[in-house]
Design goal:
With about 550 residues, the chain is α/β, with parallel strands linked by helices. It has 19 helices and 23 strands. Helix 9 links the parallel strand 13 (about 245-255) and strand 14.
Length: about 550
């Protein structure tokens, strides 16, 4: 009733002012609050001690209400709720920033050129690591690369290169020898690891590409960075995130050790955004959650209350588990990286511990197994507020899409995956299965919650690109005309909600962030223009500043980008 009275009197909605509160006020031409009852404002006031909003309304009223408060006059800008990436990997991003960047390479030769340049920074004998290669975009052939390309350039130094999706590794013979010595057997032959595939030639020899769990045969032997390097890498990743307007990240697959590092930064006041960490499968971090209950840092910027599990691989490396053969690879139906039996055990364990479950599923078979397991484990509990999630939900049968809403399952999807994959996705799955692929509007129309993210470092750390992809379903050159499968495009408002209030809801955080309302955190982004102005390119928005708890954690004027 208090809220209705505020609106009826044309006053800002006010939050009770704490004793000795240090109030700050920001005024701007346009503030998009994300609050359906008060969608527009021109001023915010918050308590700078606890970082919570006290009032949202018109500048004249707030300046009169808080005449002594320091004022920030942002001018002709647009303020929106802080952007939340609902699926990302901060530690992996930090690692990628310290490796050779192969993103966008157009040929085998370009990959080798970039690697040679990066090798100059390495000590003798040090592993040469890189990430971001994608054979689908190579001009000299779109098949998997071979070991010969790397052996010719790097005959002695071990090389490991992550594919852009993180679901395949490309290695040289020096790296294979290390793996074979550790395994005590050659990688040649006809055997395969559980949930993985060693790509071999007609003679049975390893070609240098290892898909899904097979990649671990080599990657397990890469020396781990020391504590100082791990901290440096994570801080670099965090800076990239806030520089691009992110105030929150749902970090999928956080180990006990990585959570300890995040706790350390939070204790030191060096965590510039909010991290919703999800434990890395049925391992130590999940054991800790079951023993101690959900974790929340006193400062409010770090929590872990769920687990991220895996069902299948990725579409680009043909590891996504399909109900029928790949259209461009007969006799291949992808991989289950976790057996259905082991997956059921992990889901039941999380359910018994009253934790949120998020599962990577890309292929239609992978998604069906996840939905079947959720339905079976939840049982009569499916109507409770569990907010279990499917991460990616990339290729789903038309009959399975409505099951998300029926089971109360969140579809956590990444708009830039659609625009990155649209050049070859239909070749992989054919014209019928593609109807249930990257089908954002189908989920919304069925009543499911849709949370948006990027999956960085698989995609760029930039929610503006996600907004643009969601609204246009085009690449940045405007292709294809009208957008790919244009009936699945989101409106600008739907896309913005996907990165704000809907992402917050998917993390059980709607009482803290996602909108600009009294009592919620003062997390917001200042853009140079209005993202809901239909005449502008969302990918060309400029992030002028990023604010968390009413503190500027990034300001464009103070950073030379």
């Amino acid at each position: 009733m208090r809220r209705i009275a505020c609106l009826a009197l044309l006053l800002p909605c006010l939050h009770a002012l704490p004793a000795n509160a240090e109030v700050r006020v920001l005024v701007a031409d346009t503030i998009r609050t994300g609050d359906p009852q008060q969608p527009l404002a021109t001023a915010l006031a918050w308590d700078s001690d606890d970082g919570r909003l006290l009032a949202v309304g018109q500048r004249e009223v707030l300046l009169r209400e808080y005449p002594q408060a320091p004022r920030i006059d942002a001018g002709a800008v647009t303020v929106v709720p802080g952007l939340i990436d609902a699926h990302a990997h901060l530690v992996y991003l930090g690692n990628a920033l310290a490796q050779a960047d192969l993103t966008g390479a157009r040929s085998h030769a370009e990959v080798v050129r970039r690697l040679r340049a990066f090798e100059l920074t390495l000590a003798p004998g040090e592993w040469l690591l890189g990430s971001g290669w994608d054979q689908n975009h190579w001009e000299d052939g779109t098949g998997f690369p071979s070991i010969a390309d790397l052996d010719a350039a790097f005959p002695e130094r071990p090389v490991y290169l992550d594919r852009i999706d993180g679901h395949a590794g490309w290695v040289n013979s020096a790296a294979l020898r290390i793996a074979e010595q550790a395994a005590g057997k050659p990688l040649a032959g006809d055997w395969q690891p559980q949930g993985g595939r060693i790509v071999r030639d007609a003679a049975g020899n390893a070609t240098g590409v290892l898909v899904d769990n097979a990649a671990g045969l080599v990657s397990a032997h890469i020396p781990s960075p020391d504590a100082a390097a791990r901290e440096k890498r994570l801080l670099a990743a965090l800076h990239e995130a806030v520089r691009n307007g992110l105030t929150g990240v749902h970090d999928m697959g956080v180990s006990r050790e990585d959570l300890a590092l995040m706790k350390q930064l939070a204790d030191q006041g060096r965590l510039p955004l909010r991290i919703d960490a999800y434990a890395d499968g049925n391992r130590a971090a999940l054991d800790d959650l079951c023993a101690d209950g959900p974790y929340r840092h006193p400062g409010g910027r770090l929590q872990m209350r769920g687990v991220k599990l895996f069902m299948d691989g990725a579409l680009g490396s043909r590891g996504a588990a399909m109900l029928a053969d790949y259209s461009d690879d007969p006799h291949n139906r992808g991989l289950l990286v976790t057996s259905p039996q082991d997956y059921d055990v992990a889901v039941r364990k999380a359910a018994d511990c009253r934790l949120q479950v998020a599962t990577h599923a890309i292929g239609d078979r992978g998604n069906r197994i996840v939905l079947d397991t959720y339905e079976r484990v939840l049982g009569a509990d499916k109507d409770r507020d569990h907010r279990w999630r499917v991460e990616h939900a990339q290729v789903v049968t038309l009959e399975d899409i409505p099951r998300f809403a029926a089971l109360g399952v969140v579809a956590s999807m990444q708009p830039t995956h659609a625009t990155s994959d649209m050049g070859w996705a239909e070749q992989r799955v054919g014209p019928e299965r593609i109807k249930g692929a990257y089908a954002w509007q189908r989920y919304l129309h069925s009543g499911a919650h849709l949370a948006l993210g990027s999956d960085f470092p698989v995609e760029r750390v930039d929610p503006r690109l996600g907004l643009y992809a969601a609204v246009t379903r085009q690449d940045r050159d405007g292709q294809p005309p009208g957008g790919w499968q244009p009936e699945q495009r989101l409106s600008a408002a739907e896309a913005l909600r996907g990165f704000t209030s809907d992402a917050a809801w998917a993390g059980h955080d709607e009482a803290e962030v996602g909108r600009l309302q009294p009592g919620l955190r003062a997390d917001f982004v200042v853009f140079d223009r209005d993202p809901l102005d239909g005449d502008m390119r969302l990918d060309e928005l400029k992030v002028l500043s990023t604010w968390v708890d009413g503190e500027a954690v990034y300001e464009a004027d103070s950073h030379a980008d």
